[in-house]
Write a structure and sequence with these properties.
By secondary structure, this protein is α/β, with parallel strands linked by helices. It folds into two domains: about 1-120, 3-Layer(aba) Sandwich (Rossmann fold), CATH 3.40.50.2300; about 125-220, Winged helix-like DNA-binding domain superfamily/Winged helix DNA-binding domain (Arc Repressor Mutant, subunit A), CATH 1.10.10. It is about 40% helix and about 25% strand. The chain has eight helices and 14 strands. Strands 2-1-3-6-7 form a five-stranded parallel β-sheet, with helices on both faces. A four-stranded antiparallel β-sheet has the order 8-9-10-11, covered by helices on one side. A hairpin with a 3-residue loop joins β13 (about 205-210) and β14. It is elongated, with a radius of gyration of 18 Å.
Length: about 220
């Protein structure tokens, strides 16, 4: 998954990004609303973690603006305000959930998983198709009943394909979803990850098709 963290507290931001990256997520960090708006305008995110009190404004204004523009990316508000009225106000503006500071990182991770499940409209996270069983939250994959160990970006790449079978992903699109803006990524890196994932799926009925000049597509043979 790819997250955007909007948080001006550098120590907290480092802690959150480090924890999320350990779980295999890609995360971009904006310290100001201006930067957050630029990220959202140029990238696709599965989830936004949004602080309220920021150097250049109120995070709720950011939320209100982007909900008005039909942005449907789930948003979890990070707030030091514990009053019920403040939390209700954030939800009314379109937040999907909120976490009150200080918080336990395990709680934040659990709330992220819950919000993403609701967004997908499913109560469970396991995907079964083409002879594989995949749990993106736990990071478990079984092909033909045999457990397969994937690296973090291989897991996220598989998740992208499984969430949109038949959809063509360009190399640039895959790079945007698998890496942060700070990463130096070449087209060769994408080819390497796709090649690795292909080998892992050889015993299944799924295959990754290369469409020359367009990108890659996950196909189901039956």
């Amino acid at each position: 998954m790819k997250f955007l963290l909007v948080e001006d507290n550098k120590e907290l931001a480092v802690a959150i990004t480090s924890r999320m990256r350990l779980d295999g997520h890609v995360i971009d960090h904006a310290e100001k609303l201006e930067d957050a708006s630029a990220y959202v305008a140029t990238g696709d995110y599965d989830l936004i973690l949004l602080d309220i009190m920021l150097p250049d404004g109120d995070g709720r204004d950011f939320l209100k603006k982007h909900r008005a523009s039909d942005l449907d990316t789930p948003v979890i508000v990070l707030t030091a305000r514990s009053q019920v009225s403040d939390r209700i106000g954030s939800l009314d503006l379109g937040a999907d959930d909120y976490v009150t500071k200080p918080f336990d990182h395990a709680e934040l991770e659990a709330r992220c998983r819950a919000v993403l499940r609701r967004k997908s409209g499913i109560a469970k996270t396991t995907i079964e198709i083409g002879g594989i069983v995949f749990d993106p939250v736990a990071g478990h994959l079984a092909v033909g009943g045999i457990a397969v160990t994937l690296r973090n970006r291989e897991l996220r790449l598989l998740e992208l394909f499984l969430n949109a079978p038949g959809h063509v992903f360009s190399k640039q699109k895959l790079a945007d979803r698998l890496f942060s803006y700070d990463d130096d990524v070449s087209e060769n890196a994408i080819e390497v990850y796709v090649g690795r994932l292909r080998r892992h799926l050889e015993a299944s009925n799924l295959k990754i098709t290369t469409l020359r000049g367009l990108g890659y597509r996950l196909d189901h043979d039956g």
